[in-house]
Specification:
Layout lengths: L7 E7 L3 H12 L3 E7 L3 H9 L5 E3 L2 H5 L4 E4 L3 H11 L8 E4 L5 H7 L8 E3 L1 E4 L19 E4 L7 H13 L3 E4 L2 H27 L14 H6 L7 H10 L1 H24 L2 H16 L3
C-alpha cells in the first residue's frame, strides 16, 4: 500500500523503541518513507531494530544520523528531548523538519525553540498511543491505527512543515488534531498522566501492606492486573513526565483527592444512597466513552 499524499525520502528516528519503532514500521508499511535510520545509545537495542527490519540502518552517532534526514523524529524520554535537539541542531540540513512524540509539550517547546535555527522547522507533536512495553522488540506497525495524534504548533511553525507532519501521522492511521499547548498539557494530565500516577501509587500501597507475612500482590486477579497494567511502564519516562508537567498534574491530583476523599467518607459513614450515586455517576461517565 502506498500513500500518495506523503513521501519522506529519509527519516531519522532518535530512540528506536515502541513509539519511534512503531512509526518507522507503519510508514514503511504504507510506502510513505524511503530510508529509515535508527539512532540511539544502546547498541543491543539498535542491533535488534535492524534485525527486525524496524529500521534500514543504525548509528550511535547522532550528528551523522540526522545529517541528511528530511524528517527527524525524537522519541526519547521528555527530559532528554531538549538536550538531544540541541546536540542535533548544528547537523540538520536546511529545510529539515524536527518533530517529537513527547507527552508534555510546553516544557519541550521551551527547551527547543530558543536554539532553533531559522532554516529548520519544528513541529511539536504527541501521538496518544502506547503499551507498557518498551524497546525495538515492542514496536508494531498497527500501534497508531485509530489513535489520535495532537500537534501543538507555535508561532514559529511553518505551515508546510505542519502539513507534512500532519500527513505523516494520518498516513499511519491517526486522527490528527491541532491544539493549544496549555490545553494539551492539562488534558493529558487528566486522561493519561493522572491514571499512571494512580496506578503506580496503588501498586505501591498494596505491595507495602504488611498485615500478613507475605506479598498479597501474588493474589491479584484480572481486575487488579488490568487496572495496574500501566504501572509496568518505563519509570524513566514517567519520572520525566511528572517533573515536566508538574503544575497540571498537581491540579489533577488534587481533583482526584477531592473525589477519593468523598468516596472514603461515604464508605466510612456506610451511606447507602451516596455510595450508589457515586458509583452510578462514574458508570455513566465511563460508559459514555465506550
Amino acid at each position: 500500500m502506498t500513500n500518495e499524499a506523503l513521501y519522506i525520502p529519509k527519516l531519522a528516528v532518535v530512540g528506536v523503541g515502541l513509539i519511534g519503532g512503531s512509526l518507522a514500521l507503519a510508514l514503511k508499511a504504507t510506502g510513505s518513507v524511503g530510508q529509515v535510520i535508527g539512532i540511539g545509545r544502546g547498541q543491543a537495542n539498535l542491533d535488534k531494530a535492524l534485525e527486525l527490519r524496524v529500521v534500514d540502518s543504525i548509528t550511535r552517532d547522532l550528528a551523522a544520523g540526522v545529517a541528511d534526514a528530511d524528517v527527524v523524529f525524537l522519541a526519547t524520554p521528555v527530559l532528554t528531548l531538549g538536550p538531544v535537539a540541541r546536540q542535533a541542531m548544528p547537523h540538520l540540513k536546511a529545510g529539515a523538519i524536527l518533530t517529537d512524540g513527547g507527552s508534555v509539550k510546553q516544557a519541550v517547546i521551551d527547551e527547543i525553540e530558543p536554539f532553533l535555527r531559522d532554516d529548520v522547522h519544528f513541529v511539536p507533536g504527541h501521538p496518544i498511543a502506547g503499551t507498557e512495553y518498551s524497546g525495538a522488540e515492542a514496536a508494531f506497525a498497527s500501534l497508531y491505527q485509530g489513535r489520535r495524534c495532537i500537534l501543538t504548533p507555535t508561532a514559529r511553525t511553518a505551515p508546510a512543515a505542519l502539513a507534512t507532519v500532519h500527513a505523516m501521522w494520518a498516513a499511519v492511521g491517526c486522527e490528527v488534531v491541532a491544539m493549544d499547548v496549555d490545553k494539551h498539557d492539562r488534558v493529558l494530565a487528566a486522561i493519561s498522566h493522572l491514571p499512571h500516577m494512580v496506578a503506580y501509587a496503588l501498586v505501591n500501597a498494596v505491595g507495602a501492606y504488611d498485615r500478613y507475612q507475605e506479598n498479597i500482590l501474588e493474589y491479584s486477579a484480572g481486575g487488579f492486573r488490568d487496572f495496574t497494567r500501566i504501572a509496568s511502564s518505563d519509570p524513566t519516562m514517567w519520572r520525566d513526565i511528572a517533573l515536566t508537567n508538574r503544575a497540571a498534574l498537581i491540579e489533577m491530583m488534587g481533583q482526584f483527592e477531592t473525589f477519593f476523599r468523598e468516596l472514603k467518607d461515604d464508605v466510612a459513614r456506610g451511606d447507602n444512597q451516596r455510595l450508589f450515586e457515586f458509583f452510578r455517576r462514574s458508570k455513566e461517565s465511563r460508559d459514555a466513552i465506550l
